[in-house]
TrEMBL record:
Membrane-related topology note: Multi-pass membrane protein
Transmembrane segments: 31-54, 60-77, 98-116, 122-140, 161-183, 189-211, 236-257, 269-290, 302-320, 332-353, 365-386, 398-415
Annotated organism of origin: Streptomyces graminofaciens
Record bears the keyword Heme: no
Name recorded for this polypeptide: Membrane protein
Top-level taxonomic group: Bacteria
PANTHER family, per the entry: MULTIDRUG RESISTANCE PROTEIN MDTH, RESISTANCE PROTEIN MDTM, PUTATIVE-RELATED-RELATED
Pfam families: MFS_1
Amino acid composition bias (Polar residues), ranges on this chain: 1-10
Length: 419
């Protein structure tokens, strides 16, 4: 897909001809609807478990701070880092078998995590959970991106509108999931994990019956040969690094944020509400933000603005941290961080996904979609372990937040410039 082919997505439409997002959902084909609802179900099961993992590892398992950070980074790396494998397999064998295999592994991983009580067992279950997503997520995301391009070229509207609906579905799941997890956590963390596994049992059954064996227009290609050209694509690799800075920042919802909430209130009960705030913002504001950005910003400027907002979120906590506020007042900087991070995410995520088809080689969209997550997953693995170490060194509490603020700002310079 060339740059010139993408230009209609950035051309403002007259007010009377702009398709509303409600009508857009009604005009989507059944496959796109299924894939978007798939993202909703994936995130309900996932976010019922993950937000409470750090506290479980630190208290019930007794892991040190650096080890908790490493495990969380390992989970992200085994997921994001291996997306390139799942994307290549989707290009070779099709979407359906890869998605079904990933669901089976996610069920096994959640069940194992519920019974894991030693470091090696936790690491094994976390790796399995991550690799499961490395199979099904790039398959689903690449097909949504491909269908979004078809939607745009058929006159349906900017491809970012479809990708924004995909993001909204994911965040709706991220809103419901932590609330379910918080309720079940009163019983036991094992119950939380088994419930997450149960959600994926339902997803597996639904996709076994509804996902087509072959999707029209998606031709299968050999695995060999694609990676070499990808590694020579400097513009694409630059986009991957900038996206990795965003993902590292987003991962702090599970590392830095729980620590800040615990410090301010003495517990993590407010964590579910902050996750809910983030998801609610995306569900209610993602589509208007995407429409506003499509009318005024190209993909590079949209990502740059989002990364700057994310950096500002970390800076808010860094500035307020020396005051040592507690109670409800102490939650205000954390809430500001969540809001700015979420608004930044609304700009970054759809733009990055919309950019990949323009930079990918024909027939290799799964590989390129997976590779973007793989590179960013490696960044998260290194960055999360470093962040956990900073938290254990006894440096001023604002230092990790300042360090994380600098990374997205620096990554803006990495964004590829349009020809």
């Amino acid at each position: 897909m060339t740059q010139s082919q993408r230009q209609p997505a950035e051309t403002p439409q007259p007010e009377a001809t702009r398709p509303s997002h409600r009508r857009a959902w009604g005009r989507l084909n059944p496959l796109l609807r299924l894939l978007i609802l798939t993202q909703l179900a994936f995130n309900i099961g996932f976010f019922a478990v993950l937000p409470f993992l750090a506290e479980h590892l630190g208290t019930a398992i007794g892991m040190a701070g650096w080890m908790v950070g490493f495990v969380l980074g390992l989970r992200t790396f085994s997921q994001q880092g291996l997306f390139v494998v799942g994307g290549a397999l989707a290009d070779r064998y099709g979407v359906r078998p890869v998605v079904l295999a990933g669901c089976v592994l996610r069920i096994a991983g959640f069940a194992w995590l519920g019974y894991a009580d030693e470091d090696w067992s936790v690491i094994g279950s976390v790796l399995l959970i991550g690799f499961a997503a490395a199979l099904f997520s790039p398959a689903v995301e690449s097909e949504v991106a491909r269908q979004a391009v078809v939607w745009e070229e058929s006159g349906g509207g900017p491809r970012t509108s479809v990708l924004a609906l995909f993001t909204v579905a994911g965040q709706a799941g991220a809103f419901v999931g932590p609330l379910i997890g918080a309720l079940l956590l009163a019983v036991d963390y094992r119950v939380v994990c088994l419930t997450g596994a149960g959600v994926f049992v339902l997803v597996l059954a639904g996709h076994f019956w509804l996902l087509p064996q072959h999707i029209p227009g998606r031709e299968r290609v050999e695995v060999r040969g694609g990676l070499r050209g990808l590694l020579r694509n400097r513009r694409f690799l630059a986009l991957c690094c900038a996206y990795g800075a965003y993902l590292l920042a987003y991962n702090q919802l599970y590392l830095l944020l729980p620590d800040e909430v615990e410090r301010a209130t003495g517990s993590q009960s407010a964590l579910a509400w902050l996750f809910g705030l983030s998801s609610l913002l995306v569900v209610t504001a993602q589509l208007p933000v995407t429409r506003w950005a499509a009318d005024r910003l190209d993909l590079r400027r949209s990502m740059a603005a989002g990364l700057a907002l994310i950096a500002a979120g970390f800076a808010v906590v860094a500035v307020a941290r020396p005051a040592e506020w507690t109670g409800n007042r102490g939650l205000l900087p954390a809430a500001g961080f969540v809001v700015l991070l979420t608004v930044g995410q609304m700009l970054v995520a759809p733009a990055a996904r919309a950019w990949v088809p323009d930079l990918a080689v024909e027939g290799r969209l799964g590989l390129y979609t997976g590779a973007m997550s793989s590179v960013s997953g490696l960044i998260v693995l290194v960055g999360s372990a470093a962040t956990g170490s900073l938290m254990d060194t006894g440096l001023p509490a604002a230092v990790p937040w300042l360090a994380l603020a600098a990374i997205p700002m620096a990554s803006i310079a990495l964004l590829p410039r349009r020809v």
